[in-house]
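Writing this down once: the sequence line spells out the residues, with the fold written below as integer tokens. I am pasting one below:
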Amino acid sequence: MESAISTGLIGLSLGSQYAMIAIGFTLIFGIMGVINFMHGGGYVIGGYLAFAVSSGMGLPFPIAVIGAAIGTALIGYLIETFFVDKYVDDHNATMLITLGIYLVVTTVIIIIFGPEPVSGFSFPISGVLRWGGLYFSYSNIVVLVICTTTIVAVYSLIYRTRYGIALRAMADNRAIATAQGIRPGRMFPVAFSLAMALAGLTGALVTPILVLEPHLGEGQLLKAFIMVILGGLGSVAGATIAAFAVGAVEAYSSVYLGGSKGALVLFIIVLVILLVRPSGLLGREARKA
């Protein structure tokens, strides 16, 4: 019983990490109609920025994490402004542009840091919290608290501020929102920055615990696709629920079935849910290309 509860806590931590990535990914798709292949790159950039600031410059890890989130937000703003904005209504073009930028970023990272996982980059807090038969690492506790707090802040921004109302209006009907005075040229770069910052913050927090190498983005992008499709295209709440569900399935299946079988179980569950509900858990009709 204690083992099952401890595994559930790990699943919660994984779910909070995945939710950060999934929310950003679905936010961009829901508002802009853009499938951002650079989103996984934001996770990788966040990790390498945190590594450069903490290990290279010798600054405290919290400052490195904040710097990574700000840095990826700035990169997201520049990508949207100079590359994506002109072609925001051409979905094929934006997919190719963001994919091309991701490949360029990966190559630059390999040139600067090398193709191998970095060394000397670890989470500053170690040890395990034990209570009876339960155990939960301090690093996972910190990640869970920070990610959950950030998710709550993002939901507050989206649902309780004028800016959030404008974002949701753009997602529901861009033409009507524009006619009412909401300017896409101001909304899109900030939304893109927010999404990239979420990915970068997650990468800065998680890669010291796991591993940091140039090709991490592919796996994160794949998981983002799974969670967004499972939750329903364009649904932030659906992506969040799907993220925690994926985290729980991944934790329990990995512990009790093993890594490869756990991945198989995850894909089977996703397929079954999509067969029963093709639009996803909280899905709506997808944008027409």
Remarks:
- DSSP finds eleven helices and two strands in the chain.
- The beta strands are 128-131, 134-137.
